[in-house]
């Protein structure tokens, strides 16, 4: 129990946050492909029911839970997000600053914002620590009390950065399990090879999570820095193309800019191979499609330890992706939501 807030009050807050999570999931779960959806639901079931990361699951049990959850979503899809009850007052679920001012003194952490495809994301957790880093306030969440089907390990809101250790550990475990199916010689295998998963899986997972928390913070710092470069017009642009290929492509451009501004130069300066390998283990999808030269530079470094090509790509990428992002905003300023096709063409012709 957190001092100052009774357990019944925590439970009421937890229920309110989880209900908002269910509403968001009800509206957006259909955006996933069937395979991704089933994998996410299986992981969500494991979290909700308190099952261990490596614990076998009954297919029938998961199937019954899934049917029940989908039935619940049908009743909530059109419901509005509800205010959160805290210490006799009600708070807008997107007012992170006010909510955390009330919760953090009692060891709790909350976030309400928007993720990919403009999906509302909420979580409530125990606060592990809150520190200043490079001028940013970094909040690290521990055990999660309420969450969505989607649980990104990190996100930025203004000058605050939220890192979710539990979500990160689950994501890392999923990647470990996936790699172990056939143990390919790839970036993920190289990253895992830096930890002794065979001798002590739990300890290796914790040490990897500790390391990758730093990488997540670096990326979110880059996101904030990219936001300063691009301004509020970028947010309007993203909101103009929700759940579209243009949004996916534009987010990849911004991700590349953020990583060229913060993540990659710092990882290279630190000379920390495990995090560099893991960065490229997650270098897929649209990001990979738009920036094959960066992946080639990584492979060169992985083979002979020479990081000169990576350093050149970071420098080139910083200027290139900032220029592309500004061209995207110019097109949107000129044509508004009619610019989708032109933006898609521009990004497609801007690969590195």
Please provide a written account of the structure:
There is one protein chain. The chain has a five-stranded mixed sheet with strand order 3-4-5-7-6. Helices cover 61% and strands 14% of the residues. The protein has two domains: 156 residues, no CATH class; 161 residues, no CATH class. The protein is an alpha+beta fold and 352 residues long. The protein is globular. It is built from 14 helices and seven strands.
Distance between the termini: 52 Å
Largest sheet: 5 strands, mixed
Q: Tell me the strand order in the biggest sheet.
A: 3-4-5-7-6
What is the count of DSSP helices, taking H or I runs of 4+ residues?
14
Q: Helices and strands: which structural class?
A: alpha+beta
Q: pLDDT below 50 for ≥5 consecutive residues: which ranges? A: none
Mean pLDDT: 90
Features:
7 strands, alpha+beta, 14 helices, single chain, two-stranded antiparallel sheet, 14% strand, 352 residues
Q: How is the topology of this model organized?
A:
Blueprint: H1 7-28, H2 34-48, H3 59-76, E1 84-86, E2 89-91, H4 96-103, E3 108-114, E4 120-133, E5 136-147, E6 154-157, E7 160-164, H5 165-180, H6 187-192, H7 201-230, H8 232-240, H9 245-270, H10 273-281, H11 285-290, H12 292-304, H13 308-335, H14 340-348
Helix pairs in contact: 1-3, 5-7, 7-9, 7-10, 9-13, 9-14, 12-13, 13-14
Offer a concise description of the structure.
61% of the residues lie in helices and 14% in strands. The protein has 14 helices and 7 strands.
């Amino acid at each position: 129990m957190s001092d100052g807030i009774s357990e019944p009050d925590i439970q009421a807050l937890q229920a309110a946050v989880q209900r908002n999570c269910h509403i968001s999931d009800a509206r957006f779960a259909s955006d996933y492909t069937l395979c991704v959806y089933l994998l996410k639901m299986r992981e969500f079931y494991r979290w909700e029911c308190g099952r261990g990361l490596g614990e076998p699951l009954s297919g029938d049990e998961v199937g019954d839970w899934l049917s029940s959850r989908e039935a619940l979503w049908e009743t909530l899809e059109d419901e509005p997000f509800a205010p959160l009850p805290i210490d006799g007052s009600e708070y807008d679920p997107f007012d992170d600053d006010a909510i955390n001012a009330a919760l953090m003194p009692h060891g709790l952490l909350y976030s309400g914002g928007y993720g990919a495809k403009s999906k509302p994301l909420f979580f409530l957790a125990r606060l592990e620590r809150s520190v200043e880093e490079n001028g940013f306030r970094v909040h690290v969440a521990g055990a999660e009390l309420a969450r969505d089907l989607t649980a990104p390990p990190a996100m930025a809101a203004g000058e605050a950065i939220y890192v979710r250790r539990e979500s990160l550990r689950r994501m890392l475990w999923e990647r470990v399990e996936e790699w172990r199916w056939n143990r390919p010689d790839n970036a993920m295998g190289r990253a895992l090879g830096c930890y002794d998963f065979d001798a002590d899986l739990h300890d290796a997972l914790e040490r990897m999570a500790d390391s990758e928390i730093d990488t997540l913070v670096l990326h979110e710092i880059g996101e904030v820095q990219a936001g300063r470069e691009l301004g509020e017009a970028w947010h309007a642009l993203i909101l103009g193309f929700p759940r579209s290929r243009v949004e996916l492509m534009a987010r990849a451009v911004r991700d590349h800019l953020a990583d060229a501004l913060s993540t990659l130069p710092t990882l290279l300066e630190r000379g920390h191979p495990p995090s560099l390998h893991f960065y490229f283990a997650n270098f897929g999808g649209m990001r990979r499609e738009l920036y094959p030269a960066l992946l080639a530079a990584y492979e060169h470094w992985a083979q002979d330890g020479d990081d000169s090509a990576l350093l050149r790509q970071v420098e080139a990428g910083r200027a290139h992706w900032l220029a592309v992002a500004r061209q995207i905003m110019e097109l949107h300023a000129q044509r508004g939501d009619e610019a989708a096709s032109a933006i898609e063409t521009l990004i497609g012709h801007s690969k590195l």
